[in-house]
Amino acid sequence: MKSSYELAMERLGQSAPVKKLSTDQKKKIQEIESIYRAKIAEQEILIRSKIAGAISDRNDGEEEALLQDLGIETRRLESECEEKKEQVRQAKGE
């Protein structure tokens, strides 16, 4: 008897066959990931420094708002990164 994981993997394989990526595509995807990791880290440093200021000013409301902003910005950048990587995956092998 197959596990639910094995069944799900079979269904995924049937609906979306795995496409082999060229070396160039792999490099482009790695570059995109690197760029977006840096952007996310930059935003985290910026917002965390603002949070430290809010904590020292004892402004809990601002701290919570900044944490929410960090989460929103991180998700936006991650989504943007995935879109760009998908564009590379969909491009014809060069």
Task: Give your account of this protein's structure.
There is one protein chain. By secondary structure, the protein is an all-alpha fold. The protein has one domain. The chain contains three helices and no strands. It has helices at about 5-15, 25-55, 60-90. The longest helix has about 35 residues, at about 25-55. The protein is elongated, with a radius of gyration of 20 Å. The termini are far apart. The model has no long low-confidence stretch (mean pLDDT about 85).
Give the gist of this structure.
With 94 residues, this protein is an all-alpha fold. Helix content is 82%, strand content 0%.
| End-to-end CA span | 42 Å
| Mean pLDDT score | 86
Helicity range: over 70%
List low-confidence stretches: none
Strand/helix succession: HHH
Quaternary state reads single chain
Q: Classify the secondary structure makeup into a structural class.
A: mainly alpha
Q: What is the count of distinct domains?
A: 1
Apparent shape: elongated
